[in-house]
TrEMBL record:
InterPro entries: Gln-synt_C, Gln_synt_N, Gln_synth/guanido_kin_cat_dom, Gln_synth_cat_dom, Gln_synth_gly_rich_site, GS_Type-3, GSIII_N
Recorded family membership: Belongs to the glutamine synthetase family.
Domain of life: Bacteria
PANTHER family per record: GLUTAMINE SYNTHETASE, TYPE-3 GLUTAMINE SYNTHETASE
SUPFAM superfamilies named in the record: Glutamine synthetase/guanido kinase (SSF55931)
Sequence ranges assigned to domain GS beta-grasp in this UniProt record: 81-177
UniProt cross-references to PROSITE patterns, sorted A to Z: GLNA_ATP, GS_BETA_GRASP, GS_CATALYTIC
Name used for this protein in its record: Glutamine synthetase III
SMART domains cross-referenced by the UniProt entry: Gln-synt_C (SM01230)
Amino acid sequence: RNQARVQAVSQIVNRKTTDVTMPEPLSKIWASDVFNLAKMEEALSKNAFKAIKTTVQTGEPLAPATADVVAAAMKDWALGKGVKFFSHIFYPMTNATAEKHDGFIITNSDGNAITEFTGSLLIKGEPDGSSFPNGSLRMTNAARGYTAWDPSSPAYIMHTDNGATLMIPSVFMSWTGEALDKKIPLLRSNSAMNKAGQRVLSLMGETEIAALNSSCGAEQEYFLIDSNFANSRPDLLLAGRTLFGAAPAKGQQFDDHYFGAIPERVQIFMQDFEDQLYRLGIPAKTHHNEVAPGQFEIAPYFEAANVASDHQQLLMTVLKLTAKRHGFMCLLHEKPFAGVNGSGKHVNWSVGNATQGNLLDPGSTPHENINFLLFCGAVIRGVHLYGPLLRAVIASASNDHRLGANEAPPAILSVYLGDQLERVFNDIKEGKLLKSEVGGLMDLGLSQILKFERDPGDRNRTSPFAFTGNRFEFRAVGSSASVSGPLVAMNTMLADSLNWIADKLEAELATGTSKPVAAVKVLKELMDGHSNVIFGGDGYSAEWHRMAVEDRGLKNLPTSADALPALREESVVKLFSGTGVLTPVELESRFEVYSEQYLLSIEVEAKLVVDMATTSIYPAAIEYLSQLAGTASSMAALNITLDSGVAAAVAKEANAMMTSVAALSAALDVHDFDSTEAHMQYSASTLCSLMLEVRAHADALEALVADDLWPLPKYAEMLFIK
Ligand code: ADP
Ligand code: MG
């Protein structure tokens, strides 16, 4: 047997079980590593606390004197917990997080060590921005980027093998103030949505309107693979997915893993993982097995979008670190195993405030119903107008493997409303609600109609964008992606639609129309233009793929190469600049960075395919051939003939594989492209199909070559041995 594989299996079989510690009571560990408002209240004077609380809740800037006081309190709290370093953590345009660690310590003129942390250090850090992807915002003479504390996201202590560090969630911008990160656009999109939402609510007669904010609850799917296996798969280590691997005899055809008993080892891991999340103030709520073997899901309770987004990044970091400690490798790739369900991230999203509550909740009075219908209508219009943008913000080389396969939402963006709500919107479109009007006053009676079934069984799992009772669930987001991009797109399209609605409402109301009638009229116009995006049927069906494009005029954008150019469309440029979320230059830089990432990840994979096929799969096939040939000639000496069928098949596949490898190598040498778009199309078609060609031969060899010679851990081993 191949040494690495044998060792991996024996190490797993003989591994000592991790000690189970009694879980600590939640009350004792909850947010114990977070410098939240409660801790600030303890540490600060009444006035200082009042000032910081206002900043946290409204985003108002902090006076320098208060910043000094907060910084000092934060430092004392952290030092008291054994922390020696602090770091501004920020969210560059990659899906990763970045940080630069600084010591609290400085020496004074007597040579004594003292600790210092001032308000200005807290508020502004200066990492060298030159190595972060900035797209066209990168100016050689001005590579510096600045980080600045985002007080609306609490600081926390991160424990790693290198010790404990105070982490300060920050924005990251260029010296000219351009957004170089994923947090600034999210904050801006929230405020654009707030402004537009306030307009609509006040036109509808609301007098007291608190600031609107978006909320996000993200369900995270992931795979756990024993690290002994992962470590002998260069593709898992470098690309996060298997570039080779034949389907196992026992796949997921029995679906017996879903909600199945969670293996003990995984259970111990989960308890550890969740305890850490609790210490960090992340409200982990549900966990369960997913459809595929080795696949699991964690879903924290929803929070304000900005905090949820930071927490989501942190959750992915803690997930990977904890898995490693438990002898697993956590795969966040969207499609680590061909033929096995992929992993996504369902982004549950709603908007609301303290006075009107959740505006995507139908509520129980006609008045609440109307507000709900306006906000819901705004979402429908947004998805219809900016579907390609929503596809672009979830685009990545890895997510392309998942979207459109018959297990994940299609690459066509449509909205699922559920039977009852769809009927209401259709009635609006057909003018039925306007006909029932009596004397200008209308009792819509919608609260009766809008009593939604909240049974998850009722939901359409094939829709990429589904209404689920009091929120929308964007299901096409990739498992490794930041949720920020999707949240920015959703908030911004909503802001745009709410402004459109407000303009229309203003005009209607000016003619003396009553508020509910004006609202229904505007919604009717909205439905006349945008009802094409509503679809309650089977999103996986071939019929929908045809109908969506031919009859409804929706776009099917199967690859990132097709989707990313949406970021350059005139309407999208206008959307972002009109709402103040991204300037044209900032948007263009995102196109450049995401395209670059796409090209790079395919290039890395293609090179790996060439390398692994040549240096480990081909030699295994040749070794087997030489064994067969040796045996055949020894047997010939005994006058026995060994059938040459297997050897011929191995030789045929090995030769064919190397022909494909040569073609892929040659294709990798092409560098001359007229545009980024053309380069992406080339990668999506030529490189990806040649990679698949190599794989097909390699996987055929896996089924032929003697098991003990095969160099790579097989699917069945990785997915089923724990
Ligand atoms: P399911 O798997 O049935 O979709 P889960 O309970 O696993 O449901 O996940 C639902 C997610 O949606 C959770 O993170 C939950 O907190 C979140 N959520 C619930 N209500 C809202 C809301 N109003 N706005 C945003 N997210 C929400
Ligand atoms: Mg869900």
